[in-house]
Design a protein that fits this description.
Radius of gyration: 33 Å
Distance between the termini: 58 Å
Structural class: alpha+beta
Number of helices: 12
CATH architecture of the largest domain: 2-Layer Sandwich
Strand content: 15-25%
Oligomer: single chain
Low-confidence stretches: none
Shape: elongated
Largest sheet: 5 strands, antiparallel
Number of strands: 12
CATH superfamily of the largest domain: GAF domain
Strand order of the largest sheet: 2-1-5-4-3
Order of helices and strands: HHEEHHEHEEHHHEHEEHEEHHEE
CATH class of the largest domain: Alpha Beta
Mean pLDDT: 78
């Protein structure tokens, strides 16, 4: 008798270990939520021997978003009954086991479904079974629930309940990581979109900057043709070729600046001379600012140390702030000026972008860093929120304050030493 019990315990332990192993593999490899919870339900039914298993996940409004199950397919009556439960879940109509588990952080166990869950459509057919239900939560966030129909003798087994609780916690932690990954994917996409939008806002100026040396090359080539036709002075030819080379180099430099700014890829933190990259941004915006009658005043502290940063993302932030200031002053009747400065403050490098435009109304100031908040007709409203996120990811701050003389001031502070990475 004792030997048989030990054999049963060993067999049961092997089943538990197989379940833990297979669920663990799935939690690591599967990135799709619906496939994840469906796969877990299948493992619990096929490997653990549960009669059926179902998992429901909430959306951010705590409404049912996804439901997966296993074990009902082979039993048509149960399957049709569960279809009715599934429809009820969509209407936020929860069975008693779900209601109980959502109000407790412990595993809810059912020994006699007919007595304890008499309102459930499955209760009568489950009269000889037990049940377990548990919340799927992580760090205070309720992701959903898991419900299992199991042999009655396991319903009050503490080892079984511990297994289910730990599994629910692991599922929740995995869902949390997936949410973070998806959030970062979206942020990465928005960051690239904002970069391209910022570049598009200065495209006219860049085109003008390229057109000037191109026009010069055209004139020089015509002069060369004239000299060639008239067998002119060879020294003039050399001089003109030198000028063509200079103009070509200028075009190449402009194109390289645009490519460096717009190139995709994972952010790379390096020790960075911020003055150099900020100055590159002023070159991108120079023509646009001149066409809009805006004076750009630069005051860079040459003695600020290098800091640990992603230079192209800092360029993106500065370009966004400069183009925002430029657009704010397009129809402004007063003096148009942008003051861009860098200096040291304690253990931080400070970048200040100040303009003399109309400023930002008090009623809107609290929302300027909110995603998708905009008062412009053709704006996505992500520029400042992306810039704010980039600076936060550098361990720094981006703040706004109205200028005493009118206009707006944006202050960036970045620590010299920062071990953060763009997520």
């Amino acid at each position: 008798m004792g030997k048989n019990i030990r054999i049963e315990q060993i067999e049961r332990l092997n089943l538990v270990l197989n379940v833990i192993r297979d669920v663990g593999r799935l939690l690591v490899s599967e990135k799709d939520k619906k496939k994840l919870i469906k796969g877990i339900c299948d493992i619990l039914v096929e490997k653990r021997g549960y009669f059926n298993a179902w998992i429901g996940l909430f959306d951010f409004e705590q409404k049912i978003e996804l439901v997966a199950d296993s074990g009902f397919e082979s039993q048509s009556d149960f399957n049709s009954q569960f279809d009715m439960i599934r429809e009820g879940l969509k209407k936020q109509e929860f069975t008693r086991c779900i209601q109980e588990t959502l109000n407790s952080d412990k595993v809810f166990a059912v020994m006699d479904p007919v007595k304890e869950c008499h309102d459930c459509i499955l209760a009568e057919d489950y009269s000889d079974r037990g049940g377990l239900a548990v919340q799927v939560t992580h760090e205070g966030v309720n992701y959903g629930f898991m419900v299992l129909s199991i042999p009655r003798n396991l319903a009050m087994d503490e080892t079984e309940k511990t297994l289910i609780k730990e599994m629910a916690d692991d599922i929740a932690a995995c869902l949390y990581r997936l949410d973070i990954a998806n959030s970062n994917d979206v942020h990465g996409f928005l960051r690239v979109q904002d970069k391209m939008t910022s570049l598009g806002r200065v495209t006219a100026g860049i085109a003008h900057e390229i057109r000037n040396p191109l026009s010069g090359i055209y004139i020089y080539l015509k002069a060369l043709k004239k000299i060639y036709n008239h067998m002119g002075d060879i020294t003039r030819v050399v001089s003109i070729i030198d000028k063509i080379e200079l103009a070509s180099n200028k075009i190449e430099s402009i194109i390289q600046r645009v490519m460096d700014f717009s190139k995709p890829g994972q952010p790379q933190f390096v020790m960075t001379d911020l003055n150099h990259y900020i100055d590159d941004v002023t070159k991108l915006t120079a023509v646009t600012l001149r066409k809009n009658g805006i004076q750009l005043i630069k005051d860079f502290d040459p003695d600020i140390p290098e800091c640990y940063a992603e230079p192209h993302l800092i360029e993106q932030v500065i370009l966004n702030l400069i183009t925002n200031a430029s657009e704010a002053m397009e129809e402004f009747p007063g003096e148009k000026r942008i003051e861009l400065s860098t200096f040291r403050k304690g253990d931080c490098i400070v970048i200040s972008v100040r303009d003399t435009g109309p400023g930002i109304p008090v009623s809107r100031q609290s929302r300027i860093f909110d995603p998708f908040y905009t008062t412009k007709a053709n704006s996505s409203g992500i520029g400042l929120s992306i810039s704010h996120r980039i600076i936060i990811d550098h361990g720094g701050t981006l703040k706004f304050s109205p200028s005493r003389t009118g206009g707006a001031i944006f202050i960036i502070e970045i620590p010299f030493e920062n071990k953060k990475r763009i997520r």
